[in-house]
Amino acid sequence: MKFKKNFIGTIKKMIIFLTVFTVSSLSIVYAQYAQTNDSLRSIAERLTAKGREFYIGCAVPSSFSGGDQTIVRTEFNIVTCENDMKIGTISPNRGQYNYGGGDSLVNFAQSNNMVFHGHCFIWHKYLPGWVDGTKSTMDTYIANVGAHFRGKIYVWDVINEAIQRDGSFRINAIGSGGQDGGSIWAQRQGVKYLEDALRDAHQADPNAKLMYNDYAIETNDAKFNGMFAMLQDFVSRGVPIDAVGFQGHLYPEFSQADANGLAAKMQRIADLGLEIYITEVDGGAPDTSASGLQHQADIYYWLMKACLAQPMCRAVQVWGIRDSQSWRNNPEDPVDKAYAPLIFNDSGGKKPAYYAIQQAMLEALNATEPSPSPSPQPSSLGDVNNNGVVDITDALLISQYYVGLIPSVFNAANADVNNDGAINIIDALLIARYYVGLIPGF
Ligand code: G3I
Predict the structure, then answer these.
(1) Is the pTM of this model over 0.70?
(2) Cα of 83 to ligand 1 centre, how many Å?
């Protein structure tokens, strides 16, 4: 009897212990990302105002609902067309240009003070049957579409997905599955089409930033290295390119170590002088349970932290608003299937992944010092004694230096007024001529 009582008591204690343990561990999980009322957009704008230029954004179809429009204008300040600016939408027939969808989204962005990300000029997919892959087709298409949107696009995806997963150029199909398909552009023109497309885009819209955009470069080293060699070559030869887009279609296996690897890859891009955009993020959850969504939130958090730690990483964009809208619900290739990959649920509610982004951005905001007020300009060209005026004393100082009477001028940076690489009597004469009003400046 006594034994039975003790046994029941032990069981009761175990139940209490397990209940307390479960509740407390759940509360630890859910407390991981603080929830504030700051919209993502407002944090991005405050970061940019502090001198850390950063955009947060999304892709939407031009047919997006009123509810989605509210989400987009509240939460984001960069937007892209999911499909409305692809050649298959704009130009289903040769010579036809349907700009309606693209125009309406560009107008939406402009009227809500957002910047626009154009997607995309040249891709091996979504091609209407008339596209023959020739240079003249490519040149004409980019010239016309680029001119139509000229001045309204902040950054254009000029080339999308031109490298295969083994790091080679996408020319003929390799392996199995749609993502390893060939490119009619490369087949007809050779890989020179890549730089020609960038030159076409620069000509069509000289002020737009030009981007190379691809998937799996976050984690696939061979693919990243193939892309990197191409970019290095472009930069060294002055081919117009400004940015790299890491699409960010992530899987539940994406880890903190992968995020560290991504950070190292971003640094290599930054070292080339190129900006980085994370363009199409949808991080699949392992499942839709609470812990699955929490795990997904971690993936978003690691990704955000990597981007925000890299000064050249300028934006993160999610590829859609609500889970139900994601292409990953019904991908062409089953390997792309993902559970609930976005940051709003089917009803438009904020998921843990939303709060993970919010927290990463708030942490970056708190860690960013306000940009220093502009320091007083050093004295201007010609003012070699730094006294705030350009006068005959500056000309005399240069003359004295030139004939060896003084070992140096005070401010050599201001002395070479004709910018010929030498400080000599010509600079002194120019300053004298400026002083007596014979020339307006240097
Ligand atoms: O609009 C038609 C509709 O009229 C028709 O009834 C229906 C029947 O299938 O198709 C609709 O078009 C679909 C379109 O999405 C709009 O929903 C196309 O079939 C479908 O192929 C298209 O898929 C898009 C895919 O690119 C191909 O363009 C996805 O929405 C879009 O999310 C996806 O985005 C790509 C990026 O551009 C590049 N990176 C990878 C990313 C995911 O694949």
Answers:
(1) yes
(2) 6
